[in-house]
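Case study 2.
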Amino acid sequence: MPAIGTSAKTLRRSIVAAAALPLLIGALASCGYGSEAPKDDAPKANVAADGSAKKLSASEVRIGYFPNLTHATALVGLQEGLIAKELGATAIKPQAFNAGPSEIEALNGGSLDIGFIGPSPSINAYVKSKGSNLRIISGSASGGVKLVVNPAKIKTLDDLKGKNIATPQKGNTQDVAFLNWIADKGWKVDPESGKGDVSVVRTDNKVTPDAFKSGSIDGAWVPEPTASKLVSDGGAVLLDETALWPDKKFVITNIIVSQKFLKEHPDVVEAVLTGTVKTNEWINANPEKAKASANAKLAAEGGKPLDAKVIDPAWPSIQITDDPLASTLKTQAEWAVKAKLIEQPDLNGIYDLTLLNKVLKAAGKPEVSDAGLGATK
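Prediction:
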């Protein structure tokens, strides 16, 4: 009840204000990606007893990733602050890369500490450095790779013979998979030039949609969201790479670390992995909100978000996982050898899952395997 003597005008103002309050609260809540998204007033994960940010052994950590949906852990973890939350006073310095070699170069040059990257660049870098430059410390994503073709020119897999099919880069993860598929068909392709029964055209993912529209390529074996961009431009999915794997799972993105940084700052690496495990859990529990979050980060990187007709079919084809799926990396290495892109590699020690399994155990999750390729202590 209003106080005695309140005027009718004042009463009307009170009623309007009260009615507007729920709308204001709803508007403020909608600024995030949902009630499960991190909030400024949420308890801090890495704080000292006095409430200040806990100090770890490094003042900053430089984290690399690609602006691809297959790097969703990085996109969402950075966008939602889930990784930063675990780092306390240690600042994140994110760096976006467009290709594996440039990210490996940054790691080798000391300007990058931790990176999200595909299996083939990880293998190549580890072998070339004779096992001295990196360790794979976690998984991140599986799947999200498709063969998309011009349906007017290619209706069956056999129709690929004599056609121009793009892959992102010579020796990259999709290139290796496609060359292996071609070999299994009994067709011949020179791995260096890409010429043969199928013309393998190494094309940057940013250029591939225009090349497809112009007709200079007839299809592409590419990751998301490039695959769905081609579909939106009239392409058709002829093959999803998951169909080639026994458990329909294969590593497309893992997390690597500089061995120097791992040795000097294991507490920081553990904090990052705690953040990625929590990020993956949030993504899998909130797929629609996570999709919106990843798209917001892509928009921040590229200036505009992905269209719904691209991101909606792309998102569910990617499985987010902490498991590095180490046995599939072994297989991918065997494919690269078979294609004569690399010599038989010694991958012993490429993994160090000690900190990841510590984080998983603390979270009540099952530990994951290094398939016998773990670093010896």
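Residues 1-43 have pLDDT under 50 and may be disordered.
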